[in-house]
Amino acid sequence: MLGEDGFALILMHDKKVASNPYPALFHVGFLLPSAEEVKQHHSRIVGAGFEAPVPAILERGGARSFGFYYHAPGGVMVEVSALAE
Known about the structure:
This protein is α+β, with helices and mostly antiparallel strands. It has one helix and four strands, in the order E-H-E-E-E.
């Protein structure tokens, strides 16, 4: 993944590794400043042809957040969220 600011994130695994080498809950998370920015990123992801559920309040036992999870190319789970107001 390459950001507009030049930030690059590369996740790799050896071709000899099983098809799903990540632990069950492994994911990459992006915490954004606001729910509006989460919605904007969701629109960009869906507009690029990826499937992602509509952002919603996420309650996981800690601080509530507003966001969504989706599988990026290669099977990596990605979280895009903001702290819920």
